[in-house]
Specification:
Layout lengths: L9 E3 L4 H11 L2 E3 L2 E3 L9 H8 L9 H4 L5 H5 L7 H25 L9 E4 L6 E2 L16 E2 L1 H12 L7 E6 L4 H8 L10 H4 L2 E4 L4 H12 L6 E5 L2 H8 L4 E4 L6 H16 L7 E3 L7
Parallel strand pairs: 4-7, 4-9, 7-8, 9-10, 10-11
Antiparallel strand pairs: 1-3, 2-3, 5-6
């Protein structure tokens, strides 16, 4: 293998025929007085292709500036240099690790807001309000027969008032049998002085049945992918179904609390920032005050 060229840019006829053919083909060499002298033209030959294939030292050759493009940092110069098979393999490995570290560094620069969910979905019974509607025998009176969890009201206000949540949509997914009661209550409970829950949320899926159907309709209506959704529910049977779709699920067995709200959002950001797009279930009874 040629590692360098003579100072006069010539080589004797005794050189291996294959090396002579390589130089003749790729370097435009011509035969003069028993030696092949370089013509200083390198048609169609990039710096790294020669290094990789023939192990030639191009830095000492004339005409390099004209034949080698100046803007080839990404396409040529970052490729592994020539050498033995093991040297090239080691160089490729180092380059791969360098690019991987660079990618991680870029992802770390992104603010947490860029990983927030695009659709926040709440169950109703025993998540947003209590008691559950099936426990009541007539249309309940808000704040008397049925009450909102303070953390649920706080979360709805936060989603509609804080700048970091700008553009995030709100959905409801309930399998209650008392569908009309639920809609009436949504129009009666106030989030702010001027807006009810009915006016605050963007999508509502309220009817009996498996919540896989609810989320299928939520995806169709919102055009948001499952892995960009977060779902708060008190029933693990619902979360087990929905998490299979790729939705990030948060278990709140005794209703939504401040700790569970914060835990759910923090874990969502943590998982999605690491590239984990799978359905995950977090939360539980440990996130309640004693």
């Amino acid at each position: 293998v040629l590692t360098s060229l003579p100072a006069a840019h010539s080589f004797p006829r005794s050189l291996h025929p294959r090396a002579r053919r390589v130089l003749s083909l790729f370097w435009g060499a011509r035969l003069e007085n028993g030696t092949e002298e370089l013509t200083h033209t390198y048609p169609g030959v990039s710096r790294m292709s020669l290094l990789n294939k023939y192990g030639l030292n191009l830095n000492s050759l004339p005409g390099l500036e004209e034949s080698h493009p100046k803007d080839c940092v990404d396409t040529c110069c970052e490729r592994p240099p020539g050498g033995t098979y093991f040297e090239r393999a080691a160089a490729r490995k180092r380059l791969k690790e360098k690019r991987k570290m660079s990618s991680k560094a870029d992802s770390k620069k992104k603010p947490a807001e860029s990983y927030l969910p695009k659709l926040v979905v709440f169950d109703l019974d025993n998540t947003v309000w209590t008691p559950e509607l099936y426990e009541l025998y007539k249309m309940p009176v808000p704040n008397k027969d049925i009450k909102l969890f303070p953390a649920a009201l706080k979360a709805l206000k936060e989603l509609r008032s804080q700048k970091q949540w700008e553009g995030v949509r709100i959905g409801l997914a309930s399998r209650t049998d008392e569908v009309q009661w639920a809609h009436n209550l949504l129009g009666m409970f106030k989030v702010t002085k001027d807006a009810t829950i009915e006016e605050t949320v963007d999508f509502k899926q309220i009817y009996p049945g498996c919540k896989l159907k609810h989320f299928k309709h939520l995806k169709e209506d919102s055009k948001i992918k499952y892995h960009d959704m977060i779902f708060f529910d008190d029933g693990m049977y619902n979360l087990n179904d929905v998490s299979k779709l790729g939705v990030f699920c948060v278990h709140c067995p005794y209703g939504l609390s401040d700790k569970i709200w914060k835990e759910g959002i923090d874990k969502f950001v943590e998982c999605r920032s690491k590239g984990n797009l799978k359905g995950v279930t977090v939360g539980g009874s440990r996130f309640y005050d004693d």
